[in-house]
Structures are given as structure tokens and as C-alpha cells.
């Protein structure tokens, strides 16, 4: 189990590092474009949620809200700054690390159950990693097309808590 946990974290952490890199290279003049900042927020919000062991009790840290659960696609009340979303990303990164670090024979079989999902913990971790990487690709495409920059590729994370 330790080898699996290490591999999962190195790859999931790398996807999170790539998201952070995309945020950091985004010029301030492009940050306020809805398709960029909102995509970052969406990605971090769901990273936080999918790393929850009790999804029904989920609540993001302030100043973030549950607007992502709105069926009508309501946007957050305001644009979140780079700094706010980088702090939220660090919060969600640690939460993801400790979720993986806490895996054992019992916890790996626990279920993430919501209205649309019923996955064991390992499958939910992989699902969340794929979601992060999907949006990193979108963000880097936006950056490359509009600003001729992009976040860096990360093979494995080196961050451990």
C-alpha cells in the first residue's frame, strides 16, 4: 500500500503543481478573463470537494461558497484574486495529500457517495486527478493562444507534508 500511495501522490501532486504553474504564469492583464479565473476556481473547488471523506458535510473555506453546486451555473459573487486561489489551492493540495497518505486496506474501500458518484476512495482520487489535468490543459491552451505563455510540465511532485 505504501508504494501505491507514493505513486498516487507523486502523480496527483504533479497535476496540482501544473495547475499552480498555470496560475503563476498568467499575466495580471489576463487573470480577469472569466474563462481563466473561473476555470481555476472551478478546478480548485472540485479538487477540495473530491478530496472530502464526507461529501454531504462539505463546505469550502471562506471566502468561497457552494456556488459550484448551483444547477443553473451561477458564478461566484465576485472575481477571486490569484492570491486567494493560490491559497485555496494549497489548502486543497494538503487535503489531497493527507487523503492519499491515509489510505490503507480499510480506507481505500470507503465510498465517496454523492448524487452523481459512488466510487471507492482510490477511484475518486484518480477521477479528481483527471479532472485537474483536464482543466490544466484548457488553461494552458488559453494562455498559449492569448498570452504566448503556458505553465510548465511536472513529471512528479516533490512536495510532501
Task: Count every beta strand, where a strand is a DSSP E run of 2 or more residues.
Answer: 2
How do the SSEs run, as a string of H and E?
A: HHHHEEH
Q: Provide the low-confidence segments as ranges.
A: none
Strand order of the largest sheet: 1-2
Ends apart, CA distance between termini: 18 Å
In percent, how much strand structure appears in the residues?
A: under 5%
Q: What would you report as the Rg, rounded to the nearest angstrom?
A: 16 Å
User: Level of helix content?
Assistant: 55-70%
Described by strand count, sense and barrel closure, the largest sheet is: 2 strands, antiparallel
Instruction: Give the mean pLDDT.
Output: 96
* Total of DSSP H or I helical runs spanning 4+ residues: 5
Category from helices, strands and their pairing: mainly alpha
| Shape field | globular
Amino acid at each position: 500500500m505504501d508504494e501505491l500511495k507514493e505513486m498516487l501522490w507523486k502523480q496527483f501532486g504533479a497535476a496540482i503543481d501544473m495547475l499552480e504553474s498555470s496560475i503563476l504564469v498568467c499575466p495580471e492583464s489576463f487573470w480577469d478573463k472569466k474563462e481563466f479565473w473561473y476555470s481555476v476556481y472551478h478546478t480548485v473547488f472540485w479538487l477540495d470537494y473530491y478530496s472530502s471523506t464526507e461529501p454531504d458535510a462539505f463546505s469550502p473555506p471562506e471566502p468561497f461558497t457552494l456556488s459550484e453546486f448551483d444547477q443553473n451555473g451561477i458564478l461566484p459573487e465576485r472575481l477571486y484574486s490569484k492570491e486567494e486561489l493560490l491559497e485555496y489551492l494549497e489548502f486543497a493540495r494538503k487535503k489531497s495529500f493527507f487523503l492519499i497518505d491515509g489510505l490503507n486496506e480499510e480506507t481505500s474501500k470507503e465510498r465517496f457517495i454523492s448524487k452523481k458518484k459512488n466510487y471507492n476512495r482510490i477511484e475518486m482520487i484518480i477521477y479528481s486527478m483527471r479532472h485537474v489535468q483536464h482543466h490544466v490543459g484548457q488553461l494552458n491552451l488559453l494562455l498559449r493562444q492569448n498570452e504566448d505563455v503556458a505553465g510548465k510540465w511536472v513529471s512528479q511532485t516533490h512536495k510532501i507534508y
